[in-house]
Design a protein that fits this description.
The complex is a heterodimer of chains A (about 575) and B (about 130). Chain A is α+β, with helices and mostly antiparallel strands. Chain A has 14 helices and 28 strands. Chain A folds into 5 domains: about 110 residues, no CATH class; about 90 residues, no CATH class; about 100 residues, Lipocalin (Beta Barrel); about 80 residues, Immunoglobulins (Immunoglobulin-like), CATH 2.60.40; about 130 residues, Immunoglobulins (Immunoglobulin-like, Sandwich). In chain A, strand 6 and strand 7 form a beta hairpin. In chain A, helix 3 crosses helix 4 and helix 7 crosses helix 12. The longest helix of chain A has 15 residues. Chain B is elongated, with a radius of gyration of 17 Å. Chain B has 2 domains: about 55 residues, no CATH class; about 40 residues, Quinohemoprotein amine dehydrogenase, gamma subunit structural domain (Quinohemoprotein amine dehydrogenase, Irregular). The longest helix of chain B is centred in the N-terminal third of the chain and has 17 residues. Chain B contains 3 helices and no strands. Classes of the chains: A alpha+beta (about 575), B mainly alpha (about 130). At the A-B interface, helix 3 and strand 28 of A face loops of B.
Chain lengths: ~575, ~130
């Protein structure tokens, strides 16, 4: 289990009475209990009975939850047997039981209960995909196209991801909304009954006013599309087993503002429990010249949901949330950190077999007039004594030398023909191939700053800062010569742009740029401190709207551009959060 | 605003500023908010700008009058947020109005503001909660 909560309700003396009980319960929901048995998976685990409900086959769950949740003759427990969710969802449920329902539970029991429930009352891979952004802690602008009204009802208070990761019977969806009403009585006026408590047109007006409240419509929709009993779960739960992931995996990643990441991860499994893993990773950021080693532990829930924690002497400690492919050849997800989980690496691990594999080339774009270029090749099982002639980059690019080679990387000396045509090149090293490995370009036509809209939170005095990271990418307009079309060529991240902050004209005379924070050389925005600022009118916080501007005056090959290229993104610097659900504060 | 009566001096000044702005903008056009020195005039409310919600944009009230409200105002910026946020914390806590952003008084943190006589002065004494 990857959720260590050594101190819950941290810095919360007003709720100190709860701290001891709560901390005792979840403090050791830490990574993988040594020697703990693998989650029980008998032949019928996870199966939904014909008349509804999933029998709970764990004696431990009956023992720790059975005081309140009565079991019937088929071992179906009230509430518990009629819902499925992620490890995070079950963990949050147990935390709430401890905090608000006087549950007394030993940490080891809480950990094992989450493990059992997340595996046997979990989500199938196809069901978890839609809400993966929630557990991967991605700050995205999600739109629930299937029913925007339901999203509006739920989004009034929290992310739609929490909803997408639930599967329940109709009665359970109704009870869930009843719980909201009990704990948060304003939920009715905030969105449950009326669609718009400001008096404007709400969802019901758009719906022809069928007499149902907003929450009644949402429950009907959710019970239909996110039911307890689904074909996906029936298929997956019958096929589910602990995965066999030991071995070496090639790592391909990307971190915004830091560029591509290449390396490898060695996974070792506990012989007694193959879903408990230990990892050793080493990888490099070629754009920044940074090498990282990392060790960690992970547990795989539901046969495919990787949850881990890892530490590094050179880099940040990370939480790891990934998903194992059905054929166990690929594991993909996010490693993240930060007070708001805002910094992360998008990671894909591919199983390394006996054959050579190419994972990437850096830089991934070369100018047609470069003459000579040096590229770094990354992969696995690269043959010893790699011959330049064996590396094929296509017309106009000739590999003249190979140096600094290991089994996972090599440096290529490349001659770029003056008449090399603009476009992508596939790379072949013997039987190994990488499509669109290198792009030849003659000109940078535009820049793009991502994310287009960023978010940071002031902090550093009483509450943590939320940083934002920006990245400038270069683009070529492609064969059609038109900007923003499908044939545009991505020339990769630029490391030498100048970053600046400009006023975003929303309010006259607010001087946001002077207060909101600073933008570092790599596009990392550090917000200013929290708290009222006496130097601002009305003692406003250091919040505001600004433009983040990237300017490129010199091409990567050192030649001066005729006119500097600019691109910008909107940055909203806003207030802290004072409550962090599902987080440990560690 | 016309049916609300200001209960303090600041609200009175705002109401006066709004009335003057409406007067300058002409009858029936109440979309331009304004203060005495123009500090609270929101540019995004310009008639030439993108479509706005009906009614004046008032970048001063508590954040609950905007959606999504906490992190951003109805236009996606910070101009309409309750500022400073500490001014709003007591109401948010006691009213449990932002349960995902501010600890609720009913269940999770009944004494959250126990050490905090005035949030705008004692804001360092409220705690980050991890329920």
């Amino acid at each position: 289990m990857y959720f260590p909560f050594p101190v819950s309700l941290r810095r919360a003396p007003c709720v100190a009475a709860l701290c001891g009980r709560f901390a005792a319960a979840v403090a050791v929901l830490s990574v993988v209990a040594a020697g703990a048995p693998a989650a029980a998976q008998d032949a019928s685990s996870g199966a939904v009975l014909p008349d509804g409900g999933i029998p709970v086959t764990s004696d431990l769950v009956h023992r720790v939850c059975g005081t309140c949740h009565r079991a019937d003759e088929q071992r179906r427990m009230s509430r518990i047997s009629y819902q499925r969710t992620t490890p995070e969802g079950w963990q949050q449920t147990i935390r709430r039981m401890v905090l608000l329902n006087n549950l007394q539970i030993e940490p080891a029991d809480a950990r094992e209960a989450v493990r059992y429930l997340a595996t046997n009352h979990g989500l199938a891979p196809d069901e978890a995909r839609l809400g993966a952004f929630e557990v991967e802690r991605r700050n995205i602008d999600f739109r629930y196209e299937a029913d925007p009204q339901t999203q509006q009802t739920c989004n009034r208070c929290h992310s739609m991801g929490r909803v997408l990761n639930q599967r329940r019977t109709l009665e359970e969806w109704e009870l869930l909304t009843a719980m909201h009403r009990g704990y948060y009585p304003l939920a009715d006026v905030q969105g449950f009954i009326s669609g718009d408590w400001l008096g404007g047109p709400g969802p019901e007006a758009e719906d022809g006013d069928d007499g149902r409240t907003a929450v009644e419509r949402a429950v009907a929709h959710l019970a239909e599309v996110f039911p307890l009993d689904s074909a996906e779960w029936a298929s997956w739960s019958a096929n589910m087993r602990a995965p066999r992931l030991e071995g070496t995996w090639a790592l391909v990643g990307f971190e915004r503002g830091q560029g591509p990441v290449y390396g490898e991860v060695v996974v070792e499994a506990n012989p007694a429990a193959p879903d408990e893993l230990e990892t050793r990773a080493r990888y490099t950021y070629p754009a920044r010249g940074v090498d990282v080693t990392r060790t960690g532990q992970a547990l795989v829930y539901t046969g495919y949901q990787w949850r881990g924690r890892s530490t590094s002497p050179e880099h940040f400690s990370a939480r790891e949330v990934m998903f194992v492919s059905r054929d166990r050849d690929e594991i993909a997800g996010r490693w993240f950190t930060g007070a708001y989980d805002e910094r992360g690496i998008d990671v894909t691990l591919r199983r390394v077999g006996p054959e050579p594999t190419i994972t990437g080339v850096y830089p991934s774009a070369v100018p047609a007039g470069a003459g000579e270029a040096t590229l770094r090749l990354f992969g696995a099982n690269l043959p010893d004594g790699l011959d330049a002639a064996a590396v094929d980059l296509g017309a106009g690019l000739t590999v003249t030398g190979v140096s600094d080679q290991s089994s996972t990387a090599a440096t290529l000396q490349v001659t770029v023909a003056p008449d090399a045509r603009v476009g992508s090149r596939d790379l072949f090293v013997g039987p190994a191939a990488l499509t669109e490995a290198v792009t030849v370009y003659d000109e940078i036509h535009r820049l793009e700053v991502t994310p287009a809209t960023g978010l940071a939170r002031v902090g550093g005095v009483a509450f943590p800062k939320q940083y934002e990271r920006f990245e400038a990418r270069a683009w070529h307009d492609g064969p059609d010569g038109e900007s923003g079309t499908d044939d545009d060529l991505d020339l990769g991240m630029l490391v030498d742009v100048d970053w600046s902050v400009e006023e975003y004209a929303v309010t006259f005379d607010d001087d946001d740029t002077a207060f909101v924070g600073t933008l570092g050389e790599h596009g990392v925005f550090e917000p200013a401190v929290d708290g009222p600022n006496p130097e601002r009118s009305g003692e406003r916080n250091n919040v505001g709207d600004v433009w983040v501007v990237a300017t490129l005056a010199t091409a990567p090959d050192g030649t001066a551009l005729d006119r500097p290229l600019r691109a910008r993104a909107h940055l909203l610097v806003t207030v802290p959060l004072y409550i962090r659900r599902g987080e440990s504060g560690q | 605003m016309t049916h609300l009566r200001p209960i303090n001096q600041k609200a009175a000044r705002i109401a006066q500023g709004m009335a003057e702005a409406r007067h300058r903008a002409g009858a029936g056009n109440g979309r331009t908010g304004g203060g005495e020195d123009g500090r609270v005039v929101a540019l995004q409310d310009s008639p030439a700008g993108p479509p706005q919600q009906e009614g004046p944009h008032i970048p001063l009230g508590c954040s609950f009058i905007f959606l999504p409200g906490w992190e951003a105002d109805s236009n996606g910026g910070a101009a309409g947020l309750c500022q400073p946020v500490e001014r709003d914390l007591f109401d948010c806590h006691l009213g449990c109005f932002w349960p995902a952003q501010v600890p609720d008084q009913l269940n999770h943190a009944p004494d959250w503001t126990g050490k905090c006589a005035a949030a705008q002065k004692d804001w360092r004494k409220v705690d980050l909660i991890f329920p």
